[in-house]
Amino acid sequence: MLATKRKNLLLSMSLVVALSASIIGCSTQNPEATPSEAAENAKAGSQEKTITMSWPRDVGPMNPHLYNPSQLFAQSMIYEPLVTYKDGKIEPHLAEDWTISPDGKEYTFKIRSNVKFSDGSAFTAASAKKNLDAVMKNMKLHTWLGVINVLEKTEVVDDSTFKMTLKEPYYSTLYDLAVVRPVRFLAEAGFPDDGDTSKGVKSPIGTGPWVLSEYKKDEYAAFTPNPNYWGDKPKIDKVIVKVVPDAETRVLAFEKGDLDLIFGEGVISFDAYKQLEQSGKYVTKLSEPVGTRNLVLNTMNERLTDLRVRQALHLSFNKKAMVEGVTMGLEEKADNILPKNLPYSNIDVNSVEYNVEKAKALLEEAGWKLPAGKTVREKDGKTLELELIYDKADLTQKAMAETLQAEWSAIGVQLKITGVELTVYIQRRKANEFDMNFYSNFGAPYDPHSFMTAVVQKGYGVSDTLVALPMKAEIDQKVNEGMKTTDEKKRTELFKSVLTTLQEQSSIIPISYIKKIAVYQKDVSTFHFPSNRDEHPFYGIETK
Description:
By secondary structure, the protein is of the alpha+beta class.
């Protein structure tokens, strides 16, 4: 059994990449400290190492079991998982070890000793069960996460042993437990009296390296190190998150020296990044790919049912030139539907190279002729007209859509590009009312299992578009088998076959690899991009 109700979250997440972006700056002393902070600093007679971060919106109520308006990066500062995703693998975190039964249904976790919440209370197997039970009490809010749909019961074996029993095997259980929400842990004192966290929490008390020390809604939030943290202690004294909705304002603040680090996805324009890079005044970095920007072709459209037409479209635009031109080199041409650095996704595929003449020949072979004096191909009295919908607020999608429109006109294809509001975009995808659209996968730790779910389950804007493929039933069978098998080698082969087939069918066309950016002043050091796309960037960060 796969997750059956991930639709709204998966669709909105794949469309709103900027929710994982942030802007950060640091200084040895906060120039805009609140009066209480300034007095405390003066009394201490010392300088704080403070990082000031801007975010487009308020950090939210910091409920570990709920979603918007709480912001992912901030939640990950306070709350921690049983296991964590790092460099393509699942590693121990609050659980220092675990075992999985041979049938893949029982997960037994050994809780790390001496872990405390920020209020000093102990994190135990009972803490894990209380939080999982609170999540399951409101299961309908979380069915997008596959493990929630197959979780049968939780048990406290003893203070340091926590057990989960599933209804059926589900290979991505550990990956689901590594996501930022909702399976993270709140202290007993933070729970409401009735235990129902869907109504809110009393206080955001977690086991993470940071605590929320000061907060003013829609203005700022201040985080300081958790004095009881079990792991490596933060090397800075404070993180201040200011609400700054405008991207240009962030860039100006950075150039003035008020901010020392810009980090994230979609947080500033490609042009602004290049200008900062070319100035030579700052350090600039790009992460490994965190996702792929794909073009989905709906095979249920009779014009796109023919493989030759889809292949012609793939061949007839200069992908490399388009990506470099639109993203100014900050993204790179993609040959794979999923980045190769994700689990089970490191497959070699035949690169599709730009070839207009071959594209024209394929259309001719498919019966789409170009009548004398006309610019659009025809077949059986119909013209080769298609519509590409995109999120009108996404300037990258808009620029790419305009490029495709121009390129495809050269082979006799008329492309109508339609920018719509995000809500309309989601509705049309769910209803399968489009010829083409843009789709980005979620990255780590969600993929490849979230993508595979979208391939087989209706309503995500992917499975429905593949129905006309002659091997769709076989694809679905391989995905379902891969999600359940406990044989790692077999799963690798099954997922490789699925990804290879989809690419050969040109039903999902990879365009570019999305990357996070970092631009920072030279007094920031030890900066690392987090492996988990949604995590905060403060692990080990230092200032000189």
